[in-house]
RNA sequence: GCAGGCGUCAUCUAGCCUGGUUAGGAUACAGGCCUUCCAAGCCUGAUGCGGGGGUUCGAAUCCCCCCGCCUGCACCA
């Protein structure tokens, strides 16, 4: 166990994808930096994500909002209260316990939201001792998952780093609704950083204290939602789901959208499950059996979600299916909360009716998604190390080499490289043997390699090698950029370029 | 946060128990030679004991503290 994780991290570090932040000083738990390949991959992932999800609606738009939010807004959202746990540590065995749970275990009454002083008083009154060793419990102290900040010279304006990007969309809903001429559904997407003071960050970029979210908040009229997002268009998409009751099963099963609706899920929600699944299976090329939605039961759900399925990808390095995102039906919780907190009316008028729009949140952890893609794509065998990234996401699109470092081949290869690099992520390499250069490109996931040989000098063709099959065809160097773009964007099949070149 | 394990070149690792080595190897990397398509070969080169304190004539090695990583528990939108 753990070796897959080690192999992956070794690749990431050696090649320039990602590594622990500040590792010059020994590292900084919960923080990771991306190197040149990781940053490029992330940019491309964001581009694919934006084009797909903004493309789902005519009224879906990207916005960009602050990472620091004042206390009042996070009080209204519920985060100040619900993101805080009161911890009580045993003086004898040092075990930490949640104060509210200790009290609830005795009284069977809701105890969340008590202050530390109230928790101390209750513990004394009820004579609660450490459930583990019966030792005496120490004083209660608050632990909030949000990073507090003191804003301004006085430091009296309390604020926090945002624990999720979503609040930026809710805070700006009214403005955008007006600017976009009062139409629902309205989609507001944010790609940005969020911060949580995780107690024990672990497992690479899986649980971090600073991370990148890509979220689409869809504001809609609950009265007409199922008509707005009809299940008809996704009827032919069986959805891979593990229901809450069967979440300990290792996999998932395909269920017809109609079955899920019959189980009580809203049709508009099932509609979006199918769309998210298409993104993973088609755009990110995740193998079907390694993808699933996992339903969360009431205990596991966040305080604001009415329906919640995790988006999960099966990852060898992390020991199985792990969450990379979620589809959350947040109802009117957020807009109603901000309406109350700000004392502004956030309802809108649709067809003469006043409604507070409901929100469906499609939420993605970008770092988790990148890790998952790299894990799924990395094939490490005694004979080859290949990163099978989807072509549009590969940080290096094409390697350009001279077959030999002499006879004018490097000059010709470099000139082809210079023509390509304007519109493509091309890389020139003449170090080592040709086989070594192919191996280098395989390991960073470059889908193609173009090699200049003596025939190039005579007829202007180069060999073009495809990463996954290692097959080669001869193509004209003059149209290489267009050919590569067609291949990367899926307009051309590699096989259609011509007969494969025989290997000597 | 608790418990256990761990930390040596870019990567994987030998050395640590039993203190004294020019800290060794492999891979990778750089330069050169060779080479007409898949990590070949030869020559040359650079890079390391997580950080800080202590013990000692002498510390990668023994002790303490810190940082980080892994696993389990707890926590987890």
Commentary on this structure:
The chain has 504 residues and is α+β, with helices and mostly antiparallel strands. The protein folds into three domains: 3-76 and 152-377, Bira Bifunctional Protein, Domain 2 (BirA Bifunctional Protein, domain 2, 2-Layer Sandwich), CATH 3.30.930.10; 84-144, Herpes Virus-1, CATH 3.30.40.230; 396-497, 3-Layer(aba) Sandwich (Rossmann fold), CATH 3.40.50.800. It is 32% helix and 27% strand. It is built from 17 helices and 26 strands. It binds one RNA strand of 77 nucleotides through helix 1, strand 5, strand 6 and helix 15.
Mean pLDDT across every amino acid position: 90
Q: How big is the Rg?
A: 27 Å
Domain count, please report it: 3
Say which CATH homologous superfamily of the largest domain is assigned: Bira Bifunctional Protein, Domain 2
Biggest beta sheet attributes: 9 strands, mixed
- Total DSSP E strands: 26
CATH topology of the largest domain: BirA Bifunctional Protein, domain 2
Spatial strand sequence of the major β-sheet: 3-10-11-19-16-15-14-12-13
- State the low-pLDDT regions, or none: none
Helix run count: 17
Quaternary structure: single chain
- What's the level 1 CATH class of the largest domain? Alpha Beta
Helix and strand content put the structural class at alpha+beta
Q: What's the shape?
A: globular
CATH A-level architecture of the largest domain? 2-Layer Sandwich
